[in-house]
Amino acid sequence: MAERLRTSFRLTGLGREMAAEFAGTLILILFGVGVVAQVVAGGIGDHDSIAWAWGLGVTLGVYVSATISGGHLNPAVTVALAVFKGFAWRKVLPYAAAQTAGAFVAALIVRWNYTEVLAKADPGHTVGKTQGVFSTLPGNGTLPVSQWGALRDQVIGTAILLFVVLALTDLKNQPPLANLAPVVIGLLVVAIGMAWGTDAGYAINPARDFGPRLAEYITGYGGAWRDQNHDLYFWVPIVGPLVGGVVGAGLYLILIGNHLTGPDEAAVPAAAGHPEPQYDVPGGVAETAPAGATGTGAAGGGTGGPA
After folding, report:
1. Which domains are delineated in the chain?
2. Which of 11, 40, 109, 141 is the most exposed place for a label (fewest CB within 10 A)?
């Protein structure tokens, strides 16, 4: 049976990479959105629970996917790697689609599992109560933060994410060894959640926000595309992270990466067993991380709940 499954459902090329991105992002969102549902609707846990579960979700999602796809789990990571690290542009949209699909399916699973709890906590499925379980809002739906403030926050938060992820996965910069890069990147997301969660729920990942937002929209949250002020908001956690990722990756290269000396990066992909460079940072850095330390996990987190 196992052999039949292995031979019948074995994908190759871009298909297997998309499957890995789908699976890794699915795991990330199951833990991330799941914990927000538990805290906001179930009353179990607090902001620290949310920050830690998102970080662990990133770590586990990267471990699931990094060997095959690099574990981007985040369109902002994929775009930044295409801009600066030679990741193939032809793969950007397929990766983003797989990441968003994984987030969407995971959010549907959370929505289904917590059906009764969500209905009791918020029968009307409103913006101010449980919409933030699935998608982010300015000021987490309660504080006086404008769309501009939320956009600024997303640019800064994602820039921090990519800056540090590149540092952690750069072979010339003493990256974590023993396959520990995903663990440290998960801790990075925990830190971002604890320090940058107020203004916009630290989505720092377009797939993490859009996939669950779509899932909540088709399951009863009619106002999913707007914020608590009734302004169209869904674009903010998409545009902000895409811009911030490029800014953060560029700053890393300008301030750190371009000044490092070390082994020839071109020889690393083959040594790491990758058929072609997946990227050389976040998410399984085929070009910059040592074999066994791949995986960027710059997936992002966020909550519209009590951040």
Report:
1. 15-119+133-260 (1.20.1080.10)
2. 11
Cβ proximity of 192 and 160 under 8 Å: yes
pLDDT at 301: 62
Q: Six-digit token pair at 7? A: 């031979």
> Which tokens go with 65?
């996917």
Residue 197 to residues 47, 87, 302, Cα–Cα distance (Å): 9, 30, 7
Q: Is 204 helix (H, G, I), strand (E, B) or coil?
A: coil
pLDDT at residue 6 tops 80 = no
Beta bridge partners of 232: 226
Residue 230 main-chain phi, psi, to 5 deg:
70, 20
Q: How far apart are CA 129 and CA 305, in angstroms?
A: 8
- Reported as a single tens digit per residue, the pLDDT across 228-247 is 999 999 999 999 999 999 99
Q: Is the pTM of this model over 0.90?
A: no
Tokens representing residue 236 in the block? 């903010």
**C-alpha 24, offset from chain centre:** 10
Distance of alpha carbon 201 from alpha carbon 58, whole angstroms:
16
Residue 173: CB partners within 8 Å, gap ≥ 6?
A: 167, 256, 257, 260, 262
Euclidean distance between CA atoms 110 and 102, whole angstroms: 12
Q: Residue 72: is it exposed, middle or buried by C-beta count within 10 angstroms (0-12/13-18/19+)?
A: buried
Q: Is the pLDDT of residue 138 over 70?
A: yes
What's the rounded Cα separation, in Å, for the pair 181 and 255? 21
Q: How far apart are CA 307 and CA 301, in angstroms?
A: 11
Q: What's the rounded Cα separation, in Å, for the pair 182 and 29?
A: 16
CA pair distance 88, 276, nearest whole angstrom: 10
Query: Given phi > 0 = left and psi -120 to 50 = alpha, else beta, which region is 96?
Result: alpha
- Measured CA to CA, the distance from residue 140 to residue 228 in angstroms comes to 9
Q: Say which residue, 200 or 283, is predicted with more confidence.
A: 200
Which amino acid would we find at residue 22? F
